[in-house]
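Recap from last week: sequence in, structure out.
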Amino acid sequence: MDLAEYRQVNYDTWQRMAPGWERERAWLWSSTHQVSENMISRLDPQPGQTLLELACGTGETGFSAAPRLGEEGKLIATDFAPDMVEAARRRAQELGLANAEVRVMDAERMDLPDDSVDGVLCRFGYMLMPDSATALAETRRVLRDGGRLSFSVWGGAERNPWAALAGAPLVQLGHMPMPQPDEPGIFSMGSEERIRELVTGAGFGEPRIEEVVVEWSFDGFGQYLRFLQDLTGVIAIVLARISDGERAQVHEAIKQNMEPFRSNGGYAMPGLALNAVAS
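Predicted structure tokens:
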């Protein structure tokens, strides 16, 4: 798949995922809030600053940071998918965030002046962007001198069975190509070496990287399937387009892969995020 094709697929995918992300906002936050809290703590936003969030989804990370900016500060929460932006805008209104602006923006082509923001947050975004190197260079461009970037990506597949065990049968059964290290995807920035290469290549100093452990809890196989179908991007699209018989075969393979993670009648599936800060 070339980059132009991937851009369109990526756009269509996250437009389609927006209703599920809005509906499951609280559950998603309960599973991954520690990632965002670590990102915000390490960014350390201050009153009066302008903070940019990229790939904001439904907005929880940036909205958690917004109160630190005070009335004189500003959060610019952005996503390339308009339906995600609308979901985030509704949430900002519910929270009464007067200092938050929510708008559509492509992280690879930011409609912002040079040196215009004090800090940038991006949770689980760069790894899925068609050209993460360009997005990081754009991030460096809009940051003021001394500004800081705080972002998170998923670690390697071996540390994230909650995602890897679903993708593996799709690859093995020929429904999805084997992910390549140089292509965008959930594990494309899953090593500290790759993070350092991209961050320093974009003009930042050496990033400081921390591991953040998460756990996804599912009350049964049905909840996990709904998670895959409604929230997981490319995997959801692939599952939707294959035949009923093929889907049943994939479901059975996934269920077998999940057996080691049975816990209290459901499943407890570990994950690992890599959180990086750079300036």
